[in-house]
Amino acid sequence: MLLVALSAIIAPFIMLVLLKMPAAKGMTISAIIVILLAFSLWGMETNIILSSILQGTHKTFTILWILFGALVLLNTLRNTGAITRINQGFQYISADMRVQAIIVAFLFGSLIEGAAGFGTPAMVTGPLMIALGFNPIAAATLALVADSSAVMFGAVGTPVAVGLSNIPGADTPFFHEIAQTITFIDLFAGTFIPLILIVLLTSFFGKGRGLKDAIPMIPWTLFVGIVYTGSAYLYANLFGHEFVSILAALTGLVVAAFTAKKGFLLPKVEWTDAMQEGFKVDTEKSNMGLITAWSPYLVVVGLLLLTRIVPWLNEFTKTAINLSWNNILGVEKISSAWEFLYSPGTILTVSAIFAFIIQRKSFNTFTKAAKESLGSMKTTTISLIATLAMVQVFSNSGLNASDLASMPQYIAESFASSLGSIWIFVAPFLGELGAFITGSATVSTLTFSPIQYNVASEIGLDQNIVLAAQIIGAAAGNMICIHNVVAASAVVGLEGKEGEIIRKTLIPAIIYGLLIGTAGFFIL
Prior knowledge:
Elements: H1 2-5, H2 7-18, H3 23-40, H4 46-80, H5 82-93, H6 97-115, H7 120-131, H8 136-146, H9 158-161, H10 172-186, H11 193-205, H12 211-214, H13 218-239, H14 244-262, H15 290-309, H16 311-319, H17 344-358, H18 364-375, H19 378-395, H20 407-419, H21 423-438, H22 441-459, H23 463-476, H24 482-491, H25 498-523
Helix pairs in contact: 2-3, 2-25, 3-19, 4-7, 4-17, 4-18, 4-19, 5-15, 6-7, 6-8, 6-11, 6-14, 7-8, 7-24, 8-11, 8-24, 8-25, 10-13, 10-23, 11-13, 13-14, 15-16, 15-17, 19-24, 20-21, 20-22, 21-22, 21-23, 21-25, 22-23, 23-25
């Protein structure tokens, strides 16, 4: 039965990575395989499977709305000329694409993650890097890998507070303890993420020099990495789990921009090998102010924070327009939330409207951007529906007539029984596995944290360290999460290249997992 439970992992891996199918085809076949196995061998009843498919379809539209928001904001800024001004701002700091990748994908992406979650950062930073001249596959790959360290705290600490909510004695002091443990472990793991990004960039997207172009960046990337993880550790100890990603990202952005402008620890030769073919930097001075150009992104961050921090606004955005679907087909445990005004998609779209107003352009800049954005999302819809239908059948497989545990729980318990002696190395990969399939560090932790807790108790490991490894691993799983890859591919115009992207993001995901396990082993 273990192979049946693993079908939701094995089938997509074979279809996308080994057979190199586009996601629309590969995930449709994978979904059919998992659904047939769930019905015939796992004992899931027809109404449970149908309600799970409908749940997945509903969730697809929540993701498509975020995707639309990210695209319409970018296209609006292209039409207003703001992207040209933003590009010139980066050229002023540094024309080196290695530096730009760290500032945009890792640090700005972490800021968006800390405010929004939902896989939003890759959908924002990927297109922004395209606009800066990065070739599309480099932009998508870097955006996915960069959206990792910040994910462990996600939108205002959700993966910790919600993900661990079913652990005995879970309360605010407990969440703060876990946050401190997470950030301590990540001092020895997350610090290397900027360097890993540069190695990926120069090895896969350079002109054959690979590590030679990454080596000169080692001092600066490690410096930026320790600034991020070190400040995250400080903020976790001072303030708890809610604002670690936001504050650490802001600290990193200020330090990285200042040191890059001064050339501190950076090579003198600027690297631009990952540039799109035919891309030319606009050297004509823009009349738009830099703050005006960036203002829509500032609006995004501001609205995200306000809707998540201010109690009355949080309540209003969650209840005013609620498109959630509860008790689908009468099944009590199967629901899908869509709080429309609270969604990052709505905030991104509102920010696009603000863009043409603030930048004093016509309404046509927005409507044109909306048409362009909708026109590029057709294939993605099919891929996401198939992916999320498969995910929800997998997640709801505990509702069966065979008295079997759910597929994810069955996998975890099978691993625990045979790999308990090396569990500290297994724990982060179980987190990655959960995020790979479900697409959420929070859901991965919510699903697997009780098992991690029990295994740690049985074999005498520090429970906080094991739970921290689970959460960091789930964050690392964001790099390879199927529906994140599909969305990131779509937003940079690369439908059909999902398998190629996963083959690249899989390497850093494994490295990150090994770093987490090693750090945990020495801390125990």
